[in-house]
Amino acid sequence: MLNRFIALTALAATGTITFCAPALAQRDQIRIVGSSTVYPFTTAVAEQFGKTGGGKTPVVESTGTGGGFKLFCAGVGPTHPDLTNASRAMRTSEFNDCQKNGVKDVVEMKVGIDGLTIAHSKGGPAIKLTLTQVFLALAEKVPGADGALVANPNKNWSDIDKSLPNIKIEVLGPPPTSGTRDSFHELFMEVGALSIPALAELRKKDAKSFDNAWKSLRKDGAYVEAGENDNVIVQKLEANKNAFGIFGFSFLDENTAKLAGVAMDGVEPTYDTISSGKYKGARPLFIYVKKQHVGVIPGIDKLVAEYVSAKAMSKDGYLARKGLVALPKAEAETIAKNAVAMKTLTAADVK
Description:
The protein is built from 16 helices and 13 strands. By secondary structure, the chain is α/β, with parallel strands linked by helices. A hairpin with a 5-residue loop joins strand 6 and strand 7.
């Protein structure tokens, strides 16, 4: 420990970090922030870690993916979190923020697959959608009769297609700080936009305008920002039988008695369709570890080992029982090996 103290003190003198080991070690409980989608899985791992004597049960906070990266990358020391959950990969801008603030060594762990779903109360009307219809329901602007973008005129689902229910479009979803919101834009809205000839042509002529089209959601009440807590969306769907909600597959899986998932382009969101890639809303989930805190905040290495263990991450593991879709065995083994070795990200690894 003395050698670690000397090394850290020397780094602090150069300005690389601004703390010494005793100051960092004032905290003896791991702190984790980030994605609400990954939150239940990390909470399960944290509880298992606490039960098996790895150390104090870590504190896990649901701040959203973007909010988690902001907190995680703000610096090194006891006031900054040790890990962050993410429902998308770290971006170049976030990696650069980490580097700028002295968070030089970041370990990325892909921990499983999630399906981004649209669901409704089982008491509501059954519905099947295409990605094109989702775009036409929720985009702020859609192509008009001449192909030019106009304010979205669709009030009811039947305005989009007469085969859809004649009920008001009302979709509850995550705020801009959420990785689920980012994934919804990329997996649903962008793909839906590209399926419309006028917008596919717009991308060729004016890529910026095309990006604005699929990244801009309605602000007239058709899309409702319901916060970072997906359980709140579940409760609101129970109260409003005609509303729809956007959240990860695990929340649908945990509420199958109350909710039904909406088939996308003819494919139902299930464990098997997400695992196989047939369901187009599939996305990877991640954990990021601050390597500079390993060995100083006690237990981080043991927590990481627990997360990537077969008893947690395998198809028969306890995370799968909570709705996490397991990675292929070979990929999971490689990720576990790199995680235990604390292999760090480089700028080339980040998009």
